[in-house]
Amino acid sequence: GPGTIAVQLSVGGNKEFSCSLREPVFGSLPLNRVQLVASGKDTVLDKVTGLQWERSPNQTTLTASNAFNRCNELGVGGFNDWRLPTLVELMTLVDFTVANPAIDAKLFPGTKSAKYWTATERPTAGRVSYKWAVDFGNGKPEFIDKTPTHLTRCTRTFQTTGEPVAAAERFVVDSDSGVVVDKYTDLRWQRSFSPKLTGSTGCASFCAGLKTDGGNWLAPDIRQLMTLVDYTRTSPATDPQPFPDVPIDSFWSTTQMVSDQDYSWAVSFGSGGLIPMTHDHVVGSYCRCVKQD
Question: Is-contact 242 180, C-beta < 8 A?
Fold first, then answer.
């Protein structure tokens, strides 16, 4: 149907299965929905995003440019269209319920608790030599200089058919109710946001008391909240049309850090990066509520 892609997985020339997936929108993927399965000895398929992943990459650290070249020259699984993943793509592999490494270690054996390169540039004036990487110790994205050496995990996209959902059609704003519907993730978002609140529990209480659109609002988890980040933008790193006047500051999620339960993850909408925040943080963070459409 419209906005979907048809995917057929072949290993060694033999068809295994096919499925219909949603088409990515302006580089954004449904971080709130992933379904990873082994698709052969050396690869893993995400049946939601349509991405196939290198399962056990080599452990050689490379500069950003050499990481790009390594993926382009990769021939794993008999495919020759491997590439360095974008930040949003690589973040779909992060499992925030585990740490060291923050990934499904059975599907991705040998993953180190270290930084892995992405192809995403940091769009800030004066920092043209910076790229995003993901630290698989805790799942945190970081923008770093291109010259140090880090690890690489390559990805590829299956052949797609069908018309993609246009970027301008992704978010539908109901100005009467103050709700933004994300047609790609099937999430409904509060268009406005709270004042600064102390702790993710403060965010949860605020959302539970929200009566807009019939109530039943929740504080978002980190994967839901990250679907609002647009890494082609900065200050704020989100689409300003459906979400105007976003402060260049942190927003709460309900996702606690596995390594320290006194902290919850927040998203900085200045850069799109993640920030660990203590539950009793005096300054506090903003809160934007969500519910399933």
Answer: yes
